[in-house]
């Protein structure tokens, strides 16, 4: 049975990406599995943190340019880290709120499973980080949370 996985990648959290490698490669060893990788940049003010340089004065053009650059950065990350054949995955970049955008894409692609890394940073979300906690509690889809 083929499975469609949505894998949320935070390009600013290399340690989370490292923790996901073995699991994604294991799932990717079955050629019938297909992956959609998503990264979400909160807003255009985050360009520098992501190492992106968009020089357009127009906000609309800057957003379009940022999405292209962000998608390219995600594609490089997936190619280098996960070693999957290009026919087995697709990359998506979004500017917005991770919680909502991850769930929206999961719905749009009809993902079987959402895979997300988690690292709790405060006592309120002692078991899961806030994004992982939101995803787990607001979807009927299977969720695989990868922790330390």
Automatic annotation (TrEMBL):
SUPFAM superfamilies: Adenine nucleotide alpha hydrolases-like (SSF52402). Gene3D superfamilies: HUPs. Pfam families: Usp (PF00582). InterPro entries: Rossmann-like_a/b/a_fold, Universal_stress_UspA, UspA. CDD domains: USP-like. It comes from the Bacteria. Residues 64-147 form the UspA domain. Belongs to the universal stress protein A family. This is Universal stress protein. It comes from Proteus vulgaris.
